[in-house]
Each structure stands twice: as structure tokens, then as C-alpha cells.
Design brief:
2 domains; 10 helices; alpha/beta; D-Maltodextrin-Binding Protein, domain 2; three-stranded parallel β-sheet; about 40% helix
């Protein structure tokens, strides 16, 4: 009987230790946010070499509020969804458009921002949207972006014959418009505003047909619990005064 009682106590101790270790692992789990290092104001590397931007500060607040840790890891945008699926990162909070193609590969949390897709040209350009999309024109855009997918599927495959030029970052795409190596760039209204605020001599000539898009945090399809945590944290953030502080800090116009 004593041996049996000893065995039961020993088993209970093992299970207790197991629970403590398991709970401790959960608490110590660091979720890696893959982000575009050159997409201000949503995400970028600041002058001190640190991750910065609207999405970075939003996720930091959510992580603290919901009790998990987060590490921000710069990730090549063209490979960011495969990196998430391969578990090299755990989420994408970096101004990512919610598109049907991406929804087939990953899950998105509730939308938190909406952007308008525009064609951007030099300030001294007399191009219209129609002229910018004429045969022989060069349109600059981010490699792997929703813009490139939409323009290919909805314009190039339906008779347009302009050329798409791909860049690793949105600022590089806009820079080539300024330098005359591209006729126009397809970017969001927030990217245009950021460039204009930095003094880039560019302007919008209007929409080119792509519908407005929502941004959302992306997670793996099997990570339902984490998605629920992010959605709850996002809801708390948007209900807090800090949300308005972030919007005022990072955007010219409040949404």
C-alpha cells in the first residue's frame, strides 16, 4: 500500500511539473512578426536601426495587453507568405492587403485599415491615368504586391500592353518615377503621402481601377487560437485612446 501511495504521489508530481513547464513555455513563447522594412508609415527600420511604424507599435501594444511577447523580423515581401507558411515567422503585421489569393493561403484577422490604390507620377508630368497605361509605358510597383497581381489579372491579361517594373520596396518604385526610369508607380494613398511628406516631387493622377483594399494581420490557417488573441487585442486597441494617438502620430488624415 505504501508503495502504491508513493507511486501515485510521484505521478502527481510529474504531472504538476509537466503542467508548469507547459504553462511556462506558453508564457515565454515569442511570436515573430515578419514585416516589410521599407513601407512607412506602417513598418520600416528607423535611423537607429530599430523596427518602427504604425503596425509595429500596434502589435507591441497588443502583445503587452494580451500577455505574449513579439519580435519583429524584416522579411522579403515577395517571400513573406511562404515564410509564414513555413513557420519562419508567426504573423504578418505590415500593411498587408487582404486579397482572395492570400486568403487561400493564410488567414487574416479583422481588417484595421483601408487604402486607395493610385497611380503616382512626377509633379511636372502631364500624364493622365489613360495615358499612363498606354502601350510602352513603364509602371513601377512593389514585387509580390496586391497591385502587381491585380494589374496583371485585370489589365495585362485583358489587352493592356504597358510594362510592369518590379522593386524590392515601394520607396524604390517611387524613386524611379522621380528619376524618370518609370512613367508611373502603382501605390497606396498612404505610400504617396509618406513620399510627399519626405519631399519627393510626386503626385497622384487618380485611381487605375483596382478596388480599395483592407489591411489585416496574417496568420497560419491552423493558428486559430492566436488569430482569436490578435482579434481581441486589436479590438481593445481600437477602443483605447492609444489608437487615436497612433493614427495622429503616423497619418496626416485620421480614419
Amino acid at each position: 500500500m505504501n508503495k502504491l501511495r508513493f507511486a501515485v504521489v510521484a505521478l502527481a508530481l510529474v504531472l504538476s511539473v509537466s503542467v508548469v513547464l507547459t504553462d511556462g513555455y506558453a508564457e515565454d513563447k515569442v511570436y515573430i512578426n515578419g514585416f516589410d522594412a521599407a513601407y512607412p508609415p506602417f513598418s520600416f527600420i528607423d535611423k537607429s536601426g530599430n523596427p518602427a511604424g504604425f503596425d509595429i507599435e500596434s502589435i507591441n501594444w497588443i502583445a503587452k495587453e494580451m500577455g505574449f511577447k513579439v519580435k519583429h523580423q524584416p522579411t522579403d515581401w515577395a517571400a513573406i507568405v511562404p515564410s509564414l507558411k513555413a513557420k519562419k515567422i508567426d504573423m504578418i503585421a505590415s500593411g498587408m492587403s487582404i486579397t482572395p489569393e492570400r486568403q487561400a493561403a493564410v488567414d487574416f484577422c479583422n481588417p484595421y485599415w483601408q487604402v486607395i490604390q493610385l497611380l503616382v507620377v512626377r509633379n511636372d508630368s502631364d500624364l493622365t491615368v489613360e495615358k499612363a497605361l498606354e502601350p510602352g509605358r513603364k509602371i513601377a510597383l512593389l514585387r509580390g504586391s496586391a497591385e502587381s497581381k491585380w494589374m496583371t489579372e485585370n489589365q495585362l491579361k485583358k489587352g493592356y500592353s504597358y510594362e510592369l517594373k518590379f522593386y524590392d520596396t515601394t520607396p524604390l518604385a517611387i524613386e524611379d518615377v522621380v528619376n524618370g526610369r518609370a512613367d508611373a508607380a502603382a501605390v497606396s494613398n498612404t505610400a504617396l503621402q509618406e513620399s510627399a511628406d519626405r519631399g519627393a516631387p510626386v503626385k497622384s493622377i487618380g485611381r487605375y481601377g483596382q478596388p480599395d483594399v483592407d489591411y489585416g494581420y496574417a496568420v497560419r490557417k491552423e493558428d486559430d487560437a492566436f488569430e482569436k488573441t490578435l482579434n481581441e487585442g486589436l479590438a481593445r486597441l481600437k477602443a483605447s485612446p492609444y489608437w487615436d494617438e497612433l493614427v495622429k502620430k503616423w497619418f496626416s488624415e485620421k480614419k
